[in-house]
Amino acid sequence: MVPSTRRAFLSDVGRGMLAAGLGASLANDLGFSTAFAAAGADSIPLGEYAGLVELMRNTPAEKLQPLLAQKIQKGEVDLKKLVAAGALANAVTFGGCDYVGFHTAMAMLPSLEMSRQLTGGRQPLPVLKVLYRNTQQIQNVGGASHTVLEAIHAAEHAAEHADGDLGVKIRDACRKPDADLGERLLATVGDSPIDAFNALQPAMQDDLNVHRFVFAHRTYGLVGLLGKEYSYSLLRQCVRFCADHERSRIEHKNGPSPIRGLVPKLLDQYKLAGKTLGKRNLDDAALNELSQVIYSGPRDRAAEAVASALAEGIDPEVVGEAVSLASNLYVLRQGSGEKQWRTHGDSAGVHSSDATNAWRNMSRVAEPRHAVSGLIVAAYHAGIQGGPFPTPAYPTDEHRALIKIQDAKGLLAETEDAIRNNDQGRATAAIQIYGERGYAVDPVFALMLKYAVSEDGRLHAEKYYHTVREEYSTTRPAFRWRQMVALSRVTASAYGYNRDDKHGFRAAGYEDACRLLGVDA
Predict the structure, then answer these.
(1) What is the predicted pLDDT for the residue at 236?
(2) Nearby residues of 475 by Cβ (< 8 Å), 6 or more positions away
(3) Angle 193-204/210-226 helices, nearest 10 degrees?
């Protein structure tokens, strides 16, 4: 059989070299197969990462992890390169259209940042954990035989669809839904990641789904990690995600999102189109009031409050801070009844906080017109999370009464004990008192990082930990400890639960990674 394209030929050659390098018996033991996608598949360019990508796509997770640990310990590969290869393996296999797949892609950069906060032999743990999940899901869908993204060459489409607003055209292609057309349109942008990112904004803002927001933000970050030559290969996944979401909406006979009509209405009503954004600040009381309006809803009112604030010249950074505090309230005020015991994973607060964090980051780099509409969408999205909850914020007075100690070391020990007993109230009380006494925040982050690495968090542990780190650093002192209290609650909720909410489990692959690295689990 003769490969039908140059890319397929090179892939076969690379695959054979990889198998030869491993040795035939080891390759067979690992479950490595030289089988590739259907003949003629023209996969995205993989460059220097090709060998690692193919290893990750061909090897079962439990057999891949020892190989990667060995490579790390021998200094043959660094964590940055492993994450980059993992992101490409994810893109080739899923293309942004697999639930576990895109959750794992969103955890790639947070895991790398978490590794930088660790020392010694523990540093690789967050990355190995996420790559284990990545490879496990790749194998679940067929491994290297399942290739979604095929190469499309921008030069072939540079003359297509040259007139009009490219972002609107991409959005309309996703509405059809026609992912192929949307991808061809995106290919006309060229090699500028920020231009491509701006072109995606109308599609990103066209519906209310936390994953389309966070996936776009994290994928743009992965472009920064890999370099602009991978920009199109990675960002086109956002087109596929949006088109796939629209297809699902149509198949389920659901109506289009109200946001499609609301945003243009508010932009016109408050004359925000083309407006120069202001730099006005709000005092603590006014910021808290705005956050309460956004939290309390209804959704239209939350969106309008943000539009009004931007029209009045309030700094978008301050407006984003208000939305973040509103999202934080969903974590703190979620009820504790039998049906609402879980505050980790796809809970109202975690979803809202992760989405708002994504919008705040995107608004900092996107064109002003997209920053304005994006913050309006963020406020509206915060209001769809099932609240406002009638319950008081954690910790309550009853929770605080459980804490009998006041020193920093004792409060951290109390928090850790509460986490290990899934006691959300006691954990939040200990951390709130710790913050009130002015103790340093770094030991709290170190404690929460320990469990963000060891626990699954229903696919959200890495993202939410990273969200809180960023939101703590961009929230004023009067309110920032609310983020730490929320993180302690989510951590206590997540401890010991797998993604099926069964108790008594650590994150898949975590304990094996500890053993391979010679560190305590």
Answers:
(1) 97
(2) 321, 324, 325, 482, 483
(3) 170
